[in-house]
Amino acid sequence: MTSKNEKAWRQLFGKYNILKTVxxxxxxxxxxxxxxxxxxxxxxxxxDQRSNLPDIFxxxxxxxxxxxxxxxIIAKFNAYEDVNYADVETNxxxxxxxIETLDPxxxxxxxxxxxxxxxxxxxxxxxxxxxxxxxxxxxMGTGVFGFNIDTxxxxxxxxxxxxxxxxxxxxxxxNKLLLLEAKNFRVDNFLIRQMxxxxxxxxxxxxxxxxxxxxxxxxxxxxxxxxxxxxxERYNSLELxxxxxxxxEEEPITIEDICHILQKSTIVQEPxxxxxxxxxxxxxxxxxxxxxxxxxxxxxxxxNYDFEPRQSNYYADAAxxxxxxxxxxxxxxxxxxxxxxxxxxxxxxxxxxxxxxVETILQHEVFNKVLKxxxxxxxxxxxxxxxxxxxxxxxxxxxxxSTIFRRASTVKKWIEWILELIE
Length: 423
Known about the structure:
about 425 residues, alpha+beta, 7-stranded mixed beta sheet
């Protein structure tokens, strides 16, 4: 189904010959009033991840950036930075026992996640400073500055005149200012502008080191990606300095915990829901976390979070397959929400939450058999072995060999996710 943004942008591209102008002049400047002819600009220009861009942008390698409060530039520039979650050491932290307004079992918004790491002195650890205060957040004007940005054919010089930027949180110490862009889910990439515009604004205002950073809270892990701009006038001079991971301290998950669940699991009847085709299980957990805040339409999942349209279906169906989410609404406009079981599990602390999710997986025959074979043989199970197990088990609406092999890769990835929980 074509999204409202996609339809509106196709109409704008047709009316104003945007693609032709970009190919001729290198860019197209469009006003908020022009965009508003078809839909609200705030909905039409919020593309925090590359996957949020409409197809007409993606297929032509286009991006969009604001340059004033009422105008934007569309061009073939490199506006996004890829994110790689490296396998780094995870630091533990705790929050003081007298804190009653933060509930570690219900950290589902970016604001709560940021408050938790501040109270737990994680920010102090990152900045290597004892005295740290949260001083800035919210929307503000960018001021006036110029910069160049990489394009397909070289670079483009742009000027920003009092556009708007937003800072999720700014933390200040005697020597440093940390500017955070935050997301409460894992991402494959982010829009550099969300760090670059605030960086340019505050680098001119303060006489201390300004540190841009990207923060995600996913699977109960608080991840910080610390960057620097090597040339403040170059948008694409962003360089990753370090990645730091943190988790609230609690008892680890052991192999005995997993074996106990495996042994006590009762196999359930397979639901009339597509067998999972969602290899990155952390994305399923992200979706469940987002649904803790309330129901979401497929269009909202695709537009506001780092899910492509097809991925939205895959990961929503995976959550439904496990009995943790349900689908209502209509065929053309499905709505997803947590089931009572999903809400019960997702309300628990990290350890119990993960074990609860593991239990829902191992109640399904294929996953149960594959993990048992893995543990009995003390070695990874091959795709071919998983396929044989699948062929001797009932799977809803999966008959072709090619389909079974694709689904087998998901089984393998989910089992690996379970085993990676063990410390």
